[in-house]
Amino acid sequence: MFDILSEKLGKVFHRLGQKGRLGEKDIDEALREVRLALLEADVNFKVVKDFIDNVRGRSLGAQVLESLTPGQQVIKIVNEELITILGGKQSRLLATSHPPAVAMLVGLQGSGKTTTAAKLALHLRKSGQRSLMVAADTRRPAAIEQLVILGKQLDIPVYSEDAKVAPAAICANAMKRAREMAATWAVVDTAGRLHIDQPMMQELAKLKDKLRPLEVLLVVDAMTGQDAVRAAQEFNDSVGLTGLILTKMDGDARGGAALSIQAVTGVPIKFIGVGEKADALEPFYPDRLASRILGMGDMVTLIEKAERTFDQKRVQELERKLETASFDLEDFLEQINQLKKMGPVSQLLEMIPGLPSVGRLPAGLEEKQLKRVEAIILSMTPEERRAPGIIDGRRRRRIAQGSGTTPQDVNQLLNQFRQMQKLTRQMQRGKGRHLLEMLR
Question: What does the pLDDT look like over 57-66, one tens digit per residue?
């Protein structure tokens, strides 16, 4: 996400930071490069113009030019202006005092509306709210069946009828069912089109009038760039939106839609889809995304992911093992599996301050390397995992053959593990204690 933009902005700000003092010419040169980087990232032209004008006006003030660290002051201003165009603050789902509330999902075909309905229902359940998913997309073949299957997989109830029944009738019956089961939300998956047309908008407007939804959420594919922005404008003008859900953010290296859509339409982004898994839907935080774009990481989101994934009792047990230097390869394998549950390693690394600006990821932290390490450990016997010191040349060859690697790969892993054991001994002496605190 935003790889190209982050890399270019990082280079610009690195050069600014190396200068002791800044003049108007320095700032104009830097902002010229920032403007080009934003346009190449497919950010709306007017949004770019307003952004650059605001940053320039603030950067030429005496507080920046006379500062001891003018480069850092400019970066601070850019960060604040990025947060502004992304919406300023987090926009949550509206609270309802008379459940069940309706969240009506609209959008074009291919934007991920049906899978997003399931992801949203799962997100609501995690926050203690009960949802009924409503299969009201009677146009796309197998849309109803897809939602029913997703409901069974996630153990979330789905209301569906024959595709020949009118969507309005399906929704009316679904609301009765939602009240019977005391649901907090009814998440309605509506029909999309391959393109925006008047009959589509009229159909959605009529359905909205009957449903009176608390939320009308446009599900839009972030990878379509400015087409996503135009679609959001048209849906908002015709139907009236309360929020946006940007899908496929994990596949958009440029990010122009995310940086333009709220500023152009005035409709807040409420969620972003960052993967295919059911739990890959995140609340949208403008400040956190701005930090990631500028290579400052996002430790808050990373810690939240860890807290949701790691079992706290197991964390305490690992802490005890670290303190007594008894952490073994079975524990290491468990940590790899927990890490995989948190999402792709590349996404996790984006959240660590400093790493996004490095460019190429360290080889030892790539997805491919993690899979190799996992294969090597799985090829060991339980005894070898608990006591790696017994692994001799013959055992190395057997492990390498079983994991599809080389004895050199096995050696490298064992050497890395020995270094980790040295770290645990340092922790035992009271050093590195803060690493354990981060897991809490």
Answer: 888 876 666 6
| Residue that wins the pLDDT comparison between 410 and 355 | 410
Domain total in the chain: 3
Note whether 140 and 267 are same-domain residues. yes
Rounded CA-CA distance 128/136 in Å is 25
Burial of 16 (0-12, 13-18, 19+ CB in 10 A): buried
Rounded Cα distance between 158 and 160, Å, is 6
Give the pLDDT band (50/70/90) at residue 252.
Answer: low
Within 8 A by CB and 6+ apart from 275, the residues are 250, 343, 344, 347
Q: State how far the Cα of 250 lies from the Cα of 344, in Å rounded to an integer.
A: 10
More confident residue, 123 or 343: 123
Asked if residue 156 lies in contact with residue 118, where contact means CB atoms within 8 angstroms, the answer is yes
pTM, to two decimals: 0.69
Domain co-membership, 125 together with 250: yes
The pair of three-digit structure tokens given for residue 235, joined into one six-digit string: 């849906």
Amino acid at 320: R
Q: Which of 295, 370, 359 has its CA nearest to residue 335?
A: 370
| DSSP reduced 3-state for 58 | helix
| Nearby residues of 98 by Cβ (< 8 Å), 6 or more positions away | none
